[in-house]
Write a structure and sequence with these properties.
alpha+beta
Length: about 300
């Protein structure tokens, strides 16, 4: 009953303060317990929440023996290696890309860059031509390019496009259908963002992780991968933001006991609370003050739920 009260009070607060949020849902590992939509429940761009789906595909490929965290980017794409390459380029591994520590040192191929045509026609060739500024693995720099390169590594290792691979191993099994997904100029799904999903479908990944990789009795993802991907793998600059407290394999750590989240631009977030056995997810529009929504979610939902 207390969970329902927290949820209802939050809905009333959002309505009274006229904050910009499209929907909120709370689920356990098997079902959605509470859900409210302030706008029509339609598939929307979940932005970088997509990265956590890509990471999961990498985990599945690793469990199948087709890929390893230590696999080097250049080993899978030797034809893209420039003449006289920087030794640091040769050392970039899948793990470096998953932890946003490739060494390129800049946030490449972010949403606006892609809209402006940066990297066209070949994102892989574009990134292989960028200077590597620091030793791979040393410094966290959030960059969709790292995710895109990791996704291309998964594709090369498994021999199919990322959308097909995720459909076979996750989307079809979890009732998510074949989602609309941004692709690059060569037809590769953008593993850094661009999947469109409804709220309840988006948060299924969090439910799967909460259940240690089991969905309706079928083991879809290795529990060891889930533990590793959702644990802090690299420190990040907190920037006076309580939500910046570490990064795993394309998952952000959250400031609640044992918690982590898949996090997309403007507020497409699934927060997993393992100790409470819950996933709390929201979707928000591209306009409005997300910091107000974030503060309300923190103070009126996440903290109270953790105190139950």
């Amino acid at each position: 009953m207390r969970l329902e009260n927290i949820f209802n009070d939050f809905v009333k607060y959002i309505q009274s303060e006229k904050l910009f949020i499209e929907g909120i849902a709370i689920a356990d590992e098997k079902s959605v317990l509470l859900e409210h939509h302030f706008t029509p429940d339609l598939p929307r761009n979940i932005y970088s929440h997509t990265k956590s789906y890509m990471s999961t595909a990498a985990g599945i490929a690793i469990a199948q023996g087709k890929l390893a965290l230590e696999t080097k980017l250049v080993d899978l794409f030797p034809e893209y290696v420039p003449e006289n390459p920087d030794d640091r380029l040769l050392r970039i591994s899948l793990k470096n890309l998953l932890t946003m520590s490739s060494g390129f040192g800049h946030p490449y191929l972010m949403n606006q860059d892609r809209r402006n045509g940066t990297g066209v026609p070949d994102y892989l060739a574009y990134m292989m031509s960028r200077p590597v500024e620091t030793e791979p693995g040393e410094k966290f720099v959030y960059s969709s390019a790292d995710s895109i390169l990791a996704g291309r590594m998964v594709e090369k290792a498994v021999g199919m496009r990322l959308g097909e691979y995720l459909y076979d191993h996750l989307f079809s099994k979890m009732g998510q259908g074949w989602p609309v997904w941004e692709h690059d100029p060569q037809g590769h799904p953008n593993s850094g963002g661009g999947i469109f999903m409804r709220l309840a479908d988006m948060m299924k990944l969090g439910q799967l992780y909460l259940a240690e990789g089991i969905w309706e009795g079928e083991h879809l993802v290795d529990a060891g991968w889930i533990s590793e991907a959702s644990s802090k793998q690299i420190d990040i600059d907190p920037e006076n933001d309580i939500w910046r407290c570490g990064y795993g394999y394309q998952f952000w750590m959250s400031p609640y006991p044992g918690s982590y989240r898949a996090d997309g631009a403007y507020g497409q977030i699934s927060t997993v609370l393992p100790q409470q056995g819950l996933v709390i997810a929201i979707q928000c529009p591209e306009y409005g003050d997300f910091e107000q929504v974030k503060a309300a979610l923190h103070e009126k939902v996440l903290l109270p739920v953790c105190d139950m």
